[in-house]
Amino acid sequence: MTSPLHDEERGESAEDIRRDEEAAERSGDLFYPNVAEFVSDRFIYLVSLPTPESGRVWCPEWYRHAEALSRLDSLWRAWEALRWDAQLGMSSWWTHHVDPHMRALTDPFTGPFARCVGGSHGSVVPLPVEEPPAGIFTDQRSAVLQDPFALD
Fold first, then answer.
1. Taking burial as the number of CB atoms within 10 A of a residue's CB, which of 92, 99, 120, 133 is the most buried?
2. What distance in Å separates the CA atoms of residue 43 and residue 128, rounded to the nearest whole number?
């Protein structure tokens, strides 16, 4: 949606608009090519290794654990997006992303590294599930988008 005001009436110069457009393009650029580079080049220097007294667990082979890989990939992508926000980006990254993910990752009872003791990796047991009855779920990928405000 465009503003009904002309650029001059909004107080924006052509240079302001160009700068905004470049910033929007730039924000899509990734600093790290993948999660492994992010973890080894930045993340390990930002987050402290849990002490043995804490009971928390970290696995140096984090990439072998699906949950850890997914959580660390999420942390990397959040960092990539929030690094452009000079005011609250990193604060948000720490409080809304790192802190809860690290609690979950290093939890000694339920975290993905809970079975990593002395360099061994215990087998992961997936959650048990029952097959749902036929017909209660539809394929959302092919669902026709409907206007939620339509009256029919």
1. 92
2. 33
Structure tokens at 106: 């290093």
54 vs 51, 58, 93, CA distance in Å? 5, 11, 23
Any idea what the Cα angle at residue 111 is, between residues 80 and 99, rounded to 5°?
40
What is 115-132 written as a DSSP string? TEETTEEPPPPPPP--PP
Which position has the token pair 């929007």?
24
What percent of the chain is predicted at pLDDT more than 70? 76
| Consecutive H or E run containing 75 | helix 66-82
Q: Is 121 exposed, middle or buried (0-12, 13-18, 19+ CB in 10 A)?
A: middle
Residue whose tokens read 């997936």: 126
Quote the distance between the C-alpha of residue 36 and its chain's center: 14
Q: Is the dihedral of CA 135, 140, 144, 150 positive or negative?
A: positive
* Other residues' Cβ atoms within 10 Å of the Cβ of residue 112: 23
